[in-house]
Each structure stands twice: as structure tokens, then as C-alpha cells.
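Newbie here. two chains, one complex. Structure please?
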Amino acid sequence: MMEPHYPLFYTFHFYLFGVIAIASALTFVTRKSPVAAALWLVNTLFSLAALYVMLDAQFIGVIQVLLYAGAIMVVFLFVVMLLNLGHPSDIADAMGKWPVIVAGFIGVVLIAQLATIAGTRLLPQFQVPAGNAADDMERYGAVGSVARPLYTEYLLAFELTSVLLLVAIVGAVVLGRRRDRDAG
Amino acid sequence: MLAESLALSAVLFSIGVVGVLTRRNAIIIFMCVELMLNAVNLTFIAFSRFYGATGQVFVVFVMTVAAAEAAVGLAIIISIFRHKQTVNLQNINLMKG
């Protein structure tokens, strides 16, 4: 695999959106109010969508904005609104001093581990076939390059996701239903 | 850009883990899980750029699972809130013997 040469424009925007994503994520985990946290997470998801587009995954970028930033985060905000949790300062949220230090340490260790994994070479038997997203896109189009493997190689998995979604719908309805004795 | 994407993904995933470990609000913990899923998605997309578009199929599956997980998880949170009037995980110990 050869990394092509990237123009400065591309590199600059890649780093820009990366920094925005990390900064928003950090702000997101430190916000007290769930609404502010949700909006910062939406910001992270938007910059990730921009990165997806820059990494030749335009369709996934669109899906990210529509489905993640649009649908899933709206569901989160609906639940925050429904629960009416009161003022953010009333709900002592962050853990004490020691859990935060331990969590920070675990986070640093995790980054180090993941960086080590990213730096290692793949064993020959794990080599993945050559090809890249840009070629697939040229041949099948942005949607077609995702849809073709989805409806051929991964058709069974795709059909099973429909079962998963059905189970999720039934589960959400059953859990969200008010018990009769509670209502009466 | 592959190394940079993987580094960014590692940092975002770790931020998500730290959030899960340090926060008490169940809704925010759920959002941290979504952040971790997105970090993994970034890895898939970065690899798919260099090894073919199949990785993007997995991102579609991850998003489906995330949507299902958000629906069921938030229903559980609402259900718990009805019983305990809180989503603070420190006060929720139904499973403790």
C-alpha cells in the first residue's frame, strides 16, 4: 500500500477537522448539562462526517449526518427533555477525584496500546486484498460501491439486521409501555 | 492519512472510555458509547480507503446496531427513571444483592 502525496489543502483540512473532533469530544465529556453534552457530540459527529467525505466515503458521510447527528441524537435529546432532570448543578455528575485520575490513566494506556497496534505491520496471512475506495467509486458510484457488497456478499447479515431492528422496536415498545397498575 | 486517522480514532475511543468511567449520568454514558462506536467507524472508513469499499458496509451495520442500542437503552433509562426518579447510576443498584 502506497500513501499518495496529498496537497496541502487536503492535509490542512484533515488536521483541522481532526482537531475539531477531538476538541468537541473533550468538551462533550466535561459538560455537566446533558443537552450541552449532546450538542457537542453532534459537533464531533459532524466533523467525523467531514473526515468520512475526505476519506472517499461520501455516502457514509451523508448517512452519518442524517442518521447519527440527525436521528439518533434527536432521540437522545427527546429523552433528556422527557426526563426533566432538573438543573445540571443539582445532579452531581462527575465521579470523585480518584476515579477521574484512574480513568485518565486508563485512557492514556489505551491510547498507547492502540497507537502500538496501528504501528505494527500486518502478518502476511492477514493481508487484505488490494484495491481502494476511489477505484470502487469510479466503477460503481458512491452508493453502488457500498450497496454492491451489501446486497451480495453480506446479504445474510443485511437480512439479519432487519430482525435486529424488529427486536429493538418490540423491546423499546415493551420497555416504554406504562404498566397498567402504575396507570391505575 | 491512514496513520493520522487511526491515531484520531484511538484518541476519540479513549475519550469515550474515560467518559464512561467518569460520568454518572446514564444518558451521557450512552452518548460516550456512541462516541466509541464512531471512533471504530472512523477506523473502518480509513482502512476502506486503502483496501476497497467493503469496510463501508461494516460501518452501515455498526450504525444499525447503534440505532437499535440507542432505542432499547433509552427505553430502559426511561423505565428506570419511572421507578427511581433518577438516572444517576450511583443511585441505581437494583441488581445489588
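Moderator note: Residues 54-84 of chain B form the longest helix (31 residues). The CA atoms of residues 80 and 87 of chain B lie 7 Å apart. Thread marked as resolved.
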